[in-house]
């Protein structure tokens, strides 16, 4: 059967073009890691009034700590979440990669994984495991680096930046090849709904909308770089529309122009990664130049704690054996913790108490 036009997210009458293996594996691994995170969190042992306490060790933090049913910020940090303190202060450069395997809460995980399966499987069927996997992980890493410029001492996790990278890659593929794709309206409607849902979730603690924005930007650039040479050869089909952006059968001048644009895109990607790594690892705070940026990632509310850069996050603590009493100086709130914690975790406990 002849393929008249290509479909990105919605399968045509002739069915999918390939198989998907990587995306389901990533989704399963992410779900299992969330369960492990909740097991490590162990809310009942922290002495909190846990949400859904009947789940035992897997019960959730109080809604004032995590309003969408998830673990504490300190647990997310222990599992590999990012913050300016851990990456810039303690030089734990692996965190921008590990954080994309974690999720802040149940709602975040469900929206992320369902969207990943819907978008990622179709892209992997169309363009293959290596290209889609590269875009997913590189976009997630780039989104994490961009997020580090704004989150300060808040803990942020999530694969949403990587998912936005795949969505950016869809845009980079469809827009320059507009006449070669069917189902554009449902495709962009689907992407819009996913983006809106994740933006709303990004206004709650531990999920960062700057990671979404950074992932989308890198996804568009990487999508052009990886998909530009993977375009279908339309000349062998009955209907073969041509586009000056993707018709590689043109004269040598057009070919050279396309090759030049591709090289510039790759160089730009490299420069952006290098620049963001330098700024993130130096601890540059983008909020110093943007008065509204803090609210773009987490809207302050009396119902939950955003954390942040408040200068009043100063605590005193007393330790006896495996019991620690932590008290915030500014609001005199106290909390007892059981266990032996590193200094980074104690700092995060202090942020939670003082917020």
Automatic annotation (TrEMBL):
<dbReference type="Pfam" id="PF01694">
    <property type="entry name" value="Rhomboid"/>
</dbReference>
<protein>
    <recommendedName>
        <fullName>RHOMBOID-like protein</fullName>
        <ecNumber>3.4.21.105</ecNumber>
    </recommendedName>
</protein>
<feature type="transmembrane region" description="Helical">
    <location>
        <begin position="157"/>
        <end position="175"/>
    </location>
</feature>
<keyword id="KW-0812">Transmembrane</keyword>
<keyword id="KW-0645">Protease</keyword>
<dbReference type="InterPro" id="IPR002610">
    <property type="entry name" value="Peptidase_S54_rhomboid-like"/>
</dbReference>
<dbReference type="InterPro" id="IPR035952">
    <property type="entry name" value="Rhomboid-like_sf"/>
</dbReference>
<feature type="domain" description="Peptidase S54 rhomboid">
    <location>
        <begin position="91"/>
        <end position="227"/>
    </location>
</feature>
<keyword id="KW-0720">Serine protease</keyword>
<keyword id="KW-1133">Transmembrane helix</keyword>
<dbReference type="GO" id="GO:0006508">
    <property type="term" value="P:proteolysis"/>
</dbReference>
<feature type="transmembrane region" description="Helical">
    <location>
        <begin position="259"/>
        <end position="281"/>
    </location>
</feature>
<feature type="transmembrane region" description="Helical">
    <location>
        <begin position="21"/>
        <end position="40"/>
    </location>
</feature>
<comment type="similarity">
    <text>Belongs to the peptidase S54 family.</text>
</comment>
<feature type="transmembrane region" description="Helical">
    <location>
        <begin position="133"/>
        <end position="151"/>
    </location>
</feature>
<dbReference type="GO" id="GO:0004252">
    <property type="term" value="F:serine-type endopeptidase activity"/>
</dbReference>
<dbReference type="GO" id="GO:0016020">
    <property type="term" value="C:membrane"/>
</dbReference>
<dbReference type="InterPro" id="IPR022764">
    <property type="entry name" value="Peptidase_S54_rhomboid_dom"/>
</dbReference>
<keyword id="KW-0472">Membrane</keyword>
<feature type="transmembrane region" description="Helical">
    <location>
        <begin position="210"/>
        <end position="228"/>
    </location>
</feature>
<feature type="transmembrane region" description="Helical">
    <location>
        <begin position="100"/>
        <end position="121"/>
    </location>
</feature>
<feature type="transmembrane region" description="Helical">
    <location>
        <begin position="187"/>
        <end position="204"/>
    </location>
</feature>
<comment type="function">
    <text>Serine protease involved in intramembrane proteolysis.</text>
</comment>
<keyword id="KW-0378">Hydrolase</keyword>
